[in-house]
Amino acid sequence: MSSITLTDVTKSYGSVQVIRKFSSVFQDHEFVTLLGPSGCGKTTMLRMIAGFEKPTTGEIKIDDTVVSGGGKFIPPNRRGIGMVFQSYAVWPHMNVFDNVAYPLKIQRLPRAEIKQRVADILEAVHLSQYVERMPNELSGGQQQRVALGRALVCSPRVLLLDEPLSNLDAKLRESMRFEIKDVQKRFGITVVYVTHDQTEAMAMSDRVIVFNRGTVQQMDSPMNIYRSPANQFVADFVGKINFLRGTAGEGRIEFPGGQGMAYSGEKRGPVVVAVRPENMTMRTDKGILRGTLTQAFYLGDTNDCRVEMDGISLRVIAAGHTYGQIDVGSPLWLDFDEYLVFDDDGVDQTKILS
Predict the structure, then answer these.
(1) How far apart, in whole angstroms, are the C-alpha atoms of residue 120 and residue 128?
(2) Burial 113-131 (b: 16+ CB within 10 A, else e)
(3) Residue 24 confidence (pLDDT) above 50
(4) DSSP H/E element including 123
(5) Could you give the angle at the alpha carbon of 39 between the alpha carbons of 35 and 45, nearest 5°?
(6) Domains of the chain (ranges plus CATH)?
(7) 225 CB-near residues (< 8 Å, 6+ apart)
(8) How does pLDDT run across 56-82, given as a tens digit for each residue?
(9) CA pair distance 97, 115, nearest whole angstrom
(10) pTM higher than 0.70 for the full model?
(11) Which strands form 340-343's sheet, in the order they lie side by side?
């Protein structure tokens, strides 16, 4: 398979800069996800790799071949890529076999070779039994697997996927994540995946690149993105989190309502304490912060709660079996030992950056 090298890539439409200077190497066999809110530039980046858009400045290489930049531009059909779109884009008048075989027929390969390669791909995407079905006889997930098979049948060097699961229902979307990951491992292919769904990014990726307004906020493994976010935007966008403004001094952070907590870090002055809901524990005896349980929602595996602390609503996610152990309206303590502390510049980054 192949690596992708992007060097100082930018993209502008007139005076609007959609992608600010970006450089990275997507390694051979790597699954890289471009993650961010709508309009952040992630699809534009994917389209530049595919060749549907030209960079304003910078260079893109697939392996050692420059495909965009320096006065050179190789069109999409000569880049050796496969692409799967959000809309499936299967031919409604062709059955499953002909949809998948179409790229090979365009190349005028021998009929026997086409038949064998299509059969192999349909087996890989679990569609062998649907070879004669028409698209309108398939479910959304099956149609998406047809699109995936068609993208893979030409043995592309790179597979690009643009929000391919967003049209599927939640349960099917979850199962398709694992199917795509399994296919990637089976073929050892380099994948660049675009999504705004942080769960997809966490479940499938070797590396996640978080974009916002055309700028990379963080580029790291899913675990580091989640547990060590670079800023408040990343912390808020990837997962659920509570933010508490306070003032850090020697050995302590004080909050506006008169409460505080021990602190051994180096920051001083205005700070934002960030705590994930699953890292907070509700107690009736003693803890770090006092509050009142205002809402509790039983979701089977979890007890999703809201706790008010000095006019601030905090979210706490506990195990399902804790539901009902503390009555709504009761005072309680919140305990936690895993949290992050950011400098507070007075701006709510979770709002201004989104």
Answers:
(1) 9
(2) ebeebbeebbebbebeebe
(3) yes
(4) helix 111-124
(5) 60
(6) 4-234 (3.40.50.300), 241-352 (2.40.50.100)
(7) 201, 202, 208, 210, 218, 234, 238
(8) 999 999 999 999 998 999 999 999 999
(9) 9
(10) yes
(11) 260-262, 252-254, 242-249, 269-275, 340-343
